[in-house]
Automatic annotation (TrEMBL), chain A:
<dbReference type="GO" id="GO:0030658">
    <property type="term" value="C:transport vesicle membrane"/>
</dbReference>
<dbReference type="InterPro" id="IPR005045">
    <property type="entry name" value="CDC50/LEM3_fam"/>
</dbReference>
<keyword id="KW-0813">Transport</keyword>
<keyword id="KW-0445">Lipid transport</keyword>
<feature type="transmembrane region" description="Helical">
    <location>
        <begin position="345"/>
        <end position="367"/>
    </location>
</feature>
<dbReference type="Pfam" id="PF03381">
    <property type="entry name" value="CDC50"/>
</dbReference>
<dbReference type="GO" id="GO:0045332">
    <property type="term" value="P:phospholipid translocation"/>
</dbReference>
<keyword id="KW-1015">Disulfide bond</keyword>
<dbReference type="GO" id="GO:0016324">
    <property type="term" value="C:apical plasma membrane"/>
</dbReference>
TrEMBL record, chain B:
<feature type="domain" description="P-type ATPase C-terminal">
    <location>
        <begin position="632"/>
        <end position="879"/>
    </location>
</feature>
<dbReference type="Pfam" id="PF16212">
    <property type="entry name" value="PhoLip_ATPase_C"/>
</dbReference>
<dbReference type="GO" id="GO:0045332">
    <property type="term" value="P:phospholipid translocation"/>
</dbReference>
<keyword id="KW-0067">ATP-binding</keyword>
<feature type="binding site">
    <location>
        <position position="286"/>
    </location>
    <ligand>
        <name>ATP</name>
    </ligand>
</feature>
<feature type="active site" description="4-aspartylphosphate intermediate">
    <location>
        <position position="185"/>
    </location>
</feature>
<feature type="binding site">
    <location>
        <position position="187"/>
    </location>
    <ligand>
        <name>ATP</name>
    </ligand>
</feature>
<protein>
    <recommendedName>
        <fullName>Phospholipid-transporting ATPase</fullName>
        <ecNumber>7.6.2.1</ecNumber>
    </recommendedName>
</protein>
<keyword id="KW-0460">Magnesium</keyword>
Length: 382, 989
């Protein structure tokens, strides 16, 4: 047994170029390893040492940088004006209570409710109008995967043969659903309108811009209407069925604006970007600032939010029910800063971390000063 | 044996162990021989000493497995928690199947428990990344590439044999940093097995060669004999002594060119001057003696037709017919030859250990020589005494017949021969003594001291006699002046006159009391040897006693004996085990290996007799010595010299261990903080197994984004630079006992991973309480969430590694910054294109949009910083550990600067005996092997080629050694061709 392993290794040895048996006739060639820095593990190296001496300035620096940033963030966030209206209609007293009930309305009449609210402060600059849903699991796995991106990208074959992932929202009435899947099917379809009540009692509808709410790349690249039909989407989509819960087919989402119709309807696109958390908000409309720059976009005063519940086709259920799963519906009016919407978290975090670093710096300085003198010399980085 | 030839009387010859042809023998001087197989089967020496080569696994791998179990538990509990919570959550009205998220018919139909099970499995799949599968690949790569650094190391290159270190396995690199017990062979490992004739003493006068020692270990033979002897003793005595040296041996002359078996290889070599002859003997001592005689003018020319030829000082050839060789054996500890001069005188020359010669010579001669012998012995030389006796014709006739009878005896042949020898070797007159030095390996003492400084316990396992071994131990500074020796040998056992077993127990208890109970309680691994207050103990045991300890007569005592023995040994800095059979060496190693705490053992040896011990130990090191390649082939690592062990363990081993330990911990850590956010996300997505990260990120995380930096780290890191590691052996203790892979550091890393995972997830969670993060009011979705977490994650774990890196080579830089750059590049690329083969374009422009948001930037920065903050703090608050601070540490066991030389360590010493170093004789026990071992001993010193017809050389016994000699010889001759002008020649043996 030993002998066999012996031979094997002998042969092995001969594979190496330059490996010569210690006594072989050609044994002049040296097997001396190359004297390169890499092979000798002597590569030039930078050997930093983190000591109190080197880290101290860094801590102070972090403190000095972070605290102002944090304060800036905090102030910015505080300056953002945000107003939230819950129109779920849980309470009997709330104006939308009736509409949110199953039995209170029949399929023939639409249901709408008006929620009055008062803004104490003026909203300057562009005001963004979000709708918010709570306890709505857009990030549920079954939900997230229930879509067909190639269909949404205008792929003809996917249009007529959507992905299996769309089940059970893939076909209806023996026709393929476009857009298929649970996400599209549950498109948020409450219609929200905003009215300003002038102190003199008159009611002004506020112009809500419905474009510019989706990511540019989504709108222009990721979502595309299928080609053909000479721009007439109803022809393109003629062999498909509308999603079960929808009131109208996809090509009627915004009949007035061909650039916002079909798959490239921005409401649809926004909805299709599934939210990260079960409580989320999505951009609904933008209220653009007034041209004159003199009056605020939304002056303080009384407003009315008009919610129109859309009608479901056959099923006599309210269109966008959230109470079955303890959900909430909100409308949020918010201004935006360079850091996005109102969120004090970042500011607080920066201030905290900055102060902690500064504090640690002081403590370290103290320790360093008191105990570090003995091995001061050791702190010199190489 | 009767040999029948036509027309001849049958001659009767004896067949003894010396006729045994052992494994691997090479034929010489003849084309073929006839052989009879004596025995085959499981009781041959080879089979008995063979040990199955088992897979060696390093302690690190065992730690990995333990950690893996923990992580497996974490994985399973995560999956169980999620599954349970999922069904709890679903039980609430409207949660399981809200109107917007209906199940398919198939899902609805699925049986409830099956669904639970599949849910459990889905969670397992979702969290499986916590098990670092890629770690195994990385560990293997690290080991494989890492082992090249040993092969490449120039410091391991030995210019003599023109070879560097050899790595036979890459699995055990890190084990080199964990060694607690070193088992070393003596001959050829601690010593060079290269005897040198130092001085002799003729008739009470000292003769010492005062020429400079040549570079090589042989003698430089200059033209003509050296006349440096002061004629102190009478010329007659002098010549008698030198003749005795020339005749009383079993050395063979190997003249260059005359080797037919070498054949073509030697063709074309220049005819060599006569002086350039090699001597072959099983015992290097004998060669040294013959060479020594040559130096003083008497050259042994060889044996032809039973005639020994000697050229004397007058350049005359003297011829002696060799009548008998009275073989060496370790009991007599001497050997003799009976020769007849031309004038018809019959002379008996005898050489042997002083203790065996002195009683057999006239007492008045002894005193003059005893002084020299003892002084030489104290200096660490192997001494031999030479005596002679003139035999009358009648005496010779008696001896002749007696010997012949004894040799032919079928029963008790050994005893009869012995009696005959004893009878012959009496009444001799002492002519002188010799001192031969078995030189220590280069830097043997320094190496041993460094290893001891590193907290390793050194066991010398040798087949040698106790005295010889002890002297070597002193010379290697394994035993020092202050070391208290605890002896447990046949001799001490017999002192008490009580039964051996009782005496053994008594001694064991006594030693145990002294070494274990009375010693201050010290924790292994933290013991500082240089803390001089405590008494150091050395322990000596021999093979026979060891057999008694291991297999006591009553089974009941076995564990008691063993545990006493082990405890004593564990408290001794050095243990010397002499007279070990090869398998006994392995037994010892096994015993220590399996003792409490399962310490890591390392065996180092150079000969075939060390193979079993090399195989048994956790790490086997072979020395590319003179005893063939057997040890090298069976070892895990082979180094040319003993001194290389120091760097192998202290530098390479240390670094490998630190690297791999860090690698392992880092892998577990990075996978934990990778998967923890995904786990936490389940609480926010209805336990629906929604992955937080995109599939590409999940796959690429371990493969592309975080693998290279740690690989570079684990190959190049030198947290302390090599020179300092070598200078401060105590640094080795810091990583002893698997220090970096114990539960404490594991817990630290795990907590760090959990902390960071929580940071990543909840930091982004709070940010996403308002998902409108862009300055145009647009909102981010779940993939943006995952991407932000993932970006923070990749940067944090990479920067964490950067913080740990102490040795930034350009490779580290490129790996770390390259990985990060690659991540950014990949993310852009992956999100920049509508991939036709993807069902969902989840990440389309997600990364780019993320980068367009100031808030995302700010949260990424602060989360990275916050995650690393505790690490930085700890690093600062801990003792500074830099290369420079190391230097300032008082080098307790600074062994670098001590000048290395054999003379510096010439300690007090017991008596040494020049006898065959490889002799292994067991006085009892090991009955199977005793015959063969005895034969080995006999063969080694005796009967080399006096029977020329049989044409067997002593090399039968150590074929590999012989082969090696041949090879070296050729190599040198080859060299000599290219340096024709070289005035002096080296004798290589």
């Amino acid at each position: 047994m030993m002998a066999s392993s012996y031979n094997a290794k002998e042969e092995d040895g001969h594979h190496h170029p330059g490996s010569v048996g210690s006594g072989g006739p050609g044994g002049v060639k040296s097997k001396k390893p190359d004297n390169t820095a890499f092979k000798q593990q002597r590569l030039p190296a930078w050997q930093p040492i983190l000591t109190a001496g080197t880290v101290l300035p860094a801590f102070f620096m972090i403190g000095l940088i972070f605290i102002p940033i944090g304060i800036g963030l905090f102030v910015t966030s505080n300056n953002i004006k945000e107003f939230e209206i819950d129109y779920t209609g849980v309470d009997m007293s709330s104006p939308c209570f009736n509409c949110s009930q199953n039995y209170s309305w029949n399929s023939t009449s639409s249901c709408s409710c008006s929620v009055p609210f008062t803004l104490d402060q003026a909203f300057e600059s562009n005001v963004f109008m979000y709708y918010g849903l709570s306890n709505f699991y857009q990030n549920h796995r079954r939900y997230v995967k229930s879509r067909d991106d190639s269909q949404l990208n205008g792929d003809k074959s996917s249009l007529l043969n959507p992905s299996k992932e769309c089940e059970p929202y893939r076909t209806s009435d023996k026709k393929q659903i476009a857009p298929c899947g649970a996400i599209a099917n549950s498109l948020f379809n409450d219609t929200l309108e905003l009215f300003y009540i002038h102190p003199n009692g008159s009611r002004f509808a506020i112009n809500l811009v419905k474009t510019g709410i989706a990511w540019w790349t989504d709108k222009h690249v990721k979502f595309r209407n299928p080609a053909g039909g000479d721009g007439n989407l109803s022809i393109v989509f003629q062999d498909t069925s509308k999603p079960v819960n929808w009131r109208k087919p996809v090509y009627e989402l915004d009949p007035n604006d061909p650039d916002n119709n079909g798959f490239i309807n921005e409401d649809l696109i926004v909805w299709m970007r599934t939210a990260a958390l079960p409580t989320f908000r999505k951009l609904y409309r933008i209220i653009q600032k007034k041209k004159d720059n003199m009056t605020p976009t939304l002056p303080p005063g009384d407003y009315i939010l008009e919610v129109t519940y859309s009608i479901l086709t056959i099923n006599v259920t309210p269109d966008y029910p959230v109470r079955s799963f303890d959900g909430r519906k909100r409308v949020i009016l918010s201004t935006i800063s360079w850091m996005g919407g109102k969120n004090p978290f970042l500011g607080i975090a920066y201030i905290t971390v900055g102060s902690v670093c500064f504090f640690l710096g002081v403590v370290l300085l103290f320790i360093h000063h008191k105990y570090g003198n003995r091995n001061n010399n050791a702190d010199i980085p190489n | 044996m009767h040999i029948y030839k036509p027309e001849q009387e049958p001659a009767v010859r004896s067949l003894g162990p010396e006729n045994l042809l052992l494994k691997g023998a090479t034929l010489k001087n003849t084309k073929k021989i006839y052989g009879v197989s004596v025995y085959t089967g499981m009781e041959t020496k080879m089979a008995l000493n063979y040990q199955g080569k088992s897979q060696k696994r390093s302690a690190v791998e065992k730690s990995i497995n333990a950690f893996l179990c923990v992580y497996l538990c974490i994985l399973i509990s995560k999956a169980v928690v999620c599954t349970t919570l999922k069904y709890v959550w679903q039980s609430k009205e409207g949660q399981d199947e809200p109107w917007y998220n209906q199940k398919t018919q198939k899902e609805k139909d699925t049986f409830m428990y099956l669904k639970m099970f599949t849910d459990f499995l889905s969670f397992m799949v979702l969290f499986n990344f916590i098990i670092p599968v890629s770690m195994y690949v990385t560990v293997e790569m690290q080991k494989f590439f890492g082992s090249f650094f040993i092969k490449w190391d120039n410091d391991f290159f030995d210019p003599e044999i023109k070879e560097g270190a050899l790595v036979n396995t890459s699995d055990l690199n890190e084990e080199l940093g964990q060694v607690e017990y070193v088992f070393t062979d003596k001959t050829g490992t601690l010593t060079q097995n290269n005897m040198e004739f130092i001085e002799c003493c003729i008739d009470g006068f000292q003769y010492r060669q005062r020429d400079v020692r040549s570079e090589l270990d042989g003698f430089t033979v200059t033209d003509g004999p050296v006349h440096k002897l002061q004629p102190k003793a009478g010329v007659e005595k002098e010549e008698l002594f030198l003749r005795a040296l020339c005749l009383c041996h079993t050395v063979q002359v190997k003249e260059a060119g005359s080797e037919e078996t070498l054949g073509d290889r030697l063709d074309g070599m220049l005819p060599k001057p006569e002086e350039e002859r090699g001597f072959i003997a099983s015992s290097p001592d004998e060669v040294a003696l013959v060479k020594g005689a040559m130096k003083y003018g008497f050259t042994f020319l060889g044996l032809e037709n039973k005639k020994m030829k000697i050229r004397n000082r007058q350049n005359d050839i003297e011829e002696y017919s060799l009548l008998h060789v009275l073989n060496f054996d370790p009991v007599r500890r001497r050997m003799s030859v009976i020769v007849q001069t031309r004038s018809g005188e019959t002379l008996l020359f005898c050489k042997g250990a002083d203790s065996s010669i002195f009683p057999r010579v006239r007492p008045e001669e002894v005193d003059r020589i005893r002084l020299h012998v003892e002084r030489n012995a104290t200096e660490g030389y192997r001494t031999l005494c030479v005596a002679y006796k003139q035999l009358t014709a009648e005496e010779y006739m008696v001896a002749e017949t007696g010997l012949q009878d004894a040799r032919l005896a079928l029963q008790d042949r050994e005893e009869k021969l012995m009696a005959m020898y004893n009878q012959l070797e009496t009444g001799m007159s002492l002519i002188g003594a010799t001192a031969v030095e078995d030189r220590l390996q280069e830097e043997a003492a320094e190496t041993m001291e460094a290893l001891q400084g590193a907290g390793m316990k050194i066991w010398v396992l040798t087949g040698d006699k106790m005295e010889t071994a002890k002297s070597t131990c002193y010379a290697c500074r394994l035993f020092q002046r202050g070391t208290e020796l605890l002896e447990l040998t046949v001799r001490t056992l017999e002192d008490g006159r009580s039964k051996r077993e009782e005496r053994l127990l008594e001694l064991l208890r006594d030693y145990h009391k002294r070494a274990v109970q009375d010693a201050p309680p010290v924790r292994t691994g933290v013991v500082t040897r240089s803390w001089c207050g405590s008494q150091e103990y050395g322990f000596i045991i021999d093979g026979a006693t060891l057999t008694l300890v291991m297999n006591p007569p009553r089974d009941a005592d076995a564990s008691l004996y063993r545990s006493l023995f082990l405890q004593i040994c564990q408290n001794c800095t050095t243990v010397l085990c002499c007279r070990m059979a090869p398998l006994q060496k392995a037994q010892i190693v096994k015993m220590v290996k399996n003792s409490k705490g399962s310490p890591i053992t390392l065996s180092i040896g150079d000969g075939a007799n060390d193979v079993s011990m090399i195989l048994e130990a956790h790490v086997g090191i072979g020395i590319k010595g003179k005893e063939g390649r057997q040890a090298v082939r069976n070892s895990d690592y082979a180094i040319p010299k003993l001194k290389h062990l120091k760097k192998l363990l202290l530098a390479h081993g240390h670094l490998y261990y630190v690297r791999i330990a860090h690698l392992v911990q880092y892998f577990f850590y990075k996978n934990l903080c990778f998967i923890l956010p995904q786990f936490l996300y389940q609480f926010f997505c209805g336990y629906s197994q929604q992955p937080l990260y995109d599939a590409a990120y999940l796959t690429m995380y371990n493969i592309c984004f975080t693998s290279l930096p740690i690989l570079a780290y684990s190959l190049l890191e030198q947290h302390i630079c090599i020179e300092i590691l070598l200078d401060n052996a105590t640094l080795y203790r810091e990583i002893a006992k698997n220090a970096m892979l114990r539960w404490r550091p594991f817990l630290y890393w795990t907590l760090l991973g959990i902390f960071q995972g929580l940071m990543f997830f909840f930091g982004v969670r709070f940010l996403f309480s308002n998902p409108a993060l862009q300055d145009n009011g647009q909102v981010f979705g779940n993939w943006s969430y995952g991407t932000i977490v993932f970006t923070v994650l990749v940067f944090t774990v990479t920067l964490k590694l950067a913080l740990d890196t102490r040795h930034w080579t350009w490779l580290n830089h490129s790996a770390i910054w390259g990985s990060l750059a690659f991540y950014v590049f990949f993310s852009f690329f992956w999100g920049g294109i509508i991939w036709p083969f993807l069902k969902q374009q989840r990440l389309y422009f997600v990364f780019a949009n993320m980068l367009s948001s100031v808030s995302a930037w700010l949260v990424i920065i602060i989360l990275i910083l916050l995650s690393l903050l505790p690490e930085i703090l700890l690093m600062v608050l801990r003792k500074p550990r830099g290369p420079l601070s190391r230097q300032k540490k008082p080098g307790q066991s600074n062994v670098g600067g001590i000048p290395s030389s054999q003379s510096s360590a010439r300690p007090l010493l017991m008596r040494t005996f020049s006898d065959e170093s490889n002799t292994v004789i067991l006085t009892d026990g090991c009955c199977h092997t005793s015959l063969l071992q005895a034969s080995e001993g006999a063969l080694l010193t005796g009967a080399v080629g006096w029977d020329h017809q049989s044409s067997l050389t002593s090399a039968d016994l150590h074929p590999l050694r012989f082969n090696k000699t041949q090879q070296r010889f050729q190599l040198e001759s080859h060299d000599s061709k290219s340096h024709k002008t070289a005035p002096s020649r080296h004798f290589l043996l």
